[in-house]
Amino acid sequence: MSSGVAVSCEGLVHIYRAEDTEVVALAGIDLQVAAGESVALLGPSGAGKSTLLSILAGVLRPSAGRLRIGAHAVESMSPAQLQRMRAAEVGVVLQGASRNLLPYLTAYDNVRFAQRAAPRGAELDAPEEVLDLLGLESFAREKFQVLTPGQRQRLAVAVAVAHSPGLLLADEPTSQLDHDAREEVLDALAQVNAVRGTTVVAVTHDPEVSERVRRTVTIRDGRVGAEGRSGEEFAVVGRGGSLTLPLDVVAALPPGTLVRVRLQGDGSVLLEPTGEGS
Ligand SMILES: Nc1ncnc2c1ncn2[C@@H]1O[C@H](COP(=O)(O)OP(=O)(O)OP(=O)(O)O)[C@@H](O)[C@H]1O
């Protein structure tokens, strides 16, 4: 049995540097995920979702900003400390089941192999229990080739949670699966979240994932552009009062438009374009 860890991102910036260019992939992400919460990260291609996931996984180091994963202040950790944190606290499902699994091992041995990376003395569920959690107990002796695509992906989740991490990160966990297999995988993630209390953060383009997860976070241009709660989209007030407007509003307000912002008596806020621009 494990329990979830909280994640806190404050002003996270990530810049990829090549010889003569810089790409600002994350431009100040503010995001709080409570322990045991389940969140889907959405957003257009190139918005910065994978970069954020890699930083949460401890694979990439943020260029600036603060990141807390449970009790760890990640931005100031040494590579060895990061490695230990990942081994103890973070499970990752990479895109494509085969990238997570050793095809010549059985389902049972894949889980057992993954547990070898856990810190010494860690309290781990037996491989049978991990497979049971993912509904794979009757496939323990099967190898990758005979499993269906949905079972393979469930096994990838089993391998990611084999060391009982408090945070499970999944990159496009339902991509290239048919409807039934997608349901299987979403059930598996929900099961890990419900039974173990594991915090789950999944990057996805799949509208079914967003429908199944109560909270969605849309990344736009390296920032949190919007949040969804039970299917309804909201703009998010950022630090210093910044607000990313919905795309249909942006289309009506070209950059540089001067807008009167008035707080109304009933607590609502009126945005009134003046017709003037800078
Ligand atoms: N290794 C890299 N070197 C330089 N630039 C990169 C690198 N990886 C990503 N980028 C750039 O950083 C930005 C964010 O990329 P990222 O892959 O995080 O976006 P994404 O939202 O995950 O996109 P997708 O949905 O297509 O995977 C993009 O402009 C991308 O071109």
From TrEMBL:
Pfam families: ABC_tran (PF00005). Residues 10-246 form the ABC transporter domain. It comes from the Bacteria. One of its GO terms (molecular function) is ATP binding. InterPro entries: AAA+_ATPase, ABC_transporter-like_ATP-bd, ABC_transpr_LolD-like, MacB-like_ATP-bd, P-loop_NTPase. Keywords: ATP-binding, Nucleotide-binding, Transport. SMART domains: AAA. PANTHER family: ABC TRANSPORTER RELATED, IMPORT ATP-BINDING PROTEIN. This is ABC transporter ATP-binding protein.
